[in-house]
Amino acid sequence: MIINLLFTILISVVASFIGGIIGIKSRGNNNKITSFAMAFASGTMLGLIFLELIPESLEGMKNEIKYGQFISVGIIFVSVIIFFIFHELLNNHGHHKHHCETETDEDNCHEVVHVIDSIEHKNGVFMSGIAFVLAMCIHNLPEGMSIGATFASSTKSGITLASVIGIHNIIVGISISVVLIGTGISKKKVLYFTTMSSLTTILGSFLGYYLGDMNEVMLSIFLAISSGTLLFVVFYEMLPKAFKYNKSKMLFIFIVLGILVFEIINIL
Q: I need a labelling partner for 194 at 20 to 30 A (CA). Which of 12, 110, 134, 207 fits?
């Protein structure tokens, strides 16, 4: 078990680290490159949401509870609303209209006002980034449990599954780093948070090995919450920023490309 767990840790951490590096390198000072990176990351997240998380949540709840799929949909919508309200409250907390009262120092005053507004905006963006990381941590937990449960039945199958999920985690790492670096935090912290997001995969592998699969209903609820959180971040932060930086229709191609890359990796 120790060797298997070490293998899972290595795959998860290294894959997330690699994804973080790629995401950071893709987001230089060039706004066009930044927009394409965000569009691609949005595509991979949309693939994750609509091709994996939501279908699994709906199916799991439907199998366990009558009309359970409607409960999952409700949880998704409530999650989006809660994170939206939470984001707005934090974004508007302490936000005041700043005025320049004297003409003498008007230029300096406007400069200070701009800095204050920029800080307040970044606080809201930062909370969206944190929400995104938490959602991915929730998403990684059942994946880790799948690895642990598979290792419990077959070492060979466990290694195969861990390797495939590792490839998937590279894409996830890219998406996380692209979102976080837009919050204004240092690249070292971006890489740190991106790598640390893989720890729930390791925790899940422990639980999966010793406890077996997660209860179907609880798993479906976790997946629905994760879906709602990711939908909020993708449509409220990532895509708007991508189209703000670049008006090119090529962004749609990168979004579709992200979805296709996720699906190809998911099939492996």
A: 207
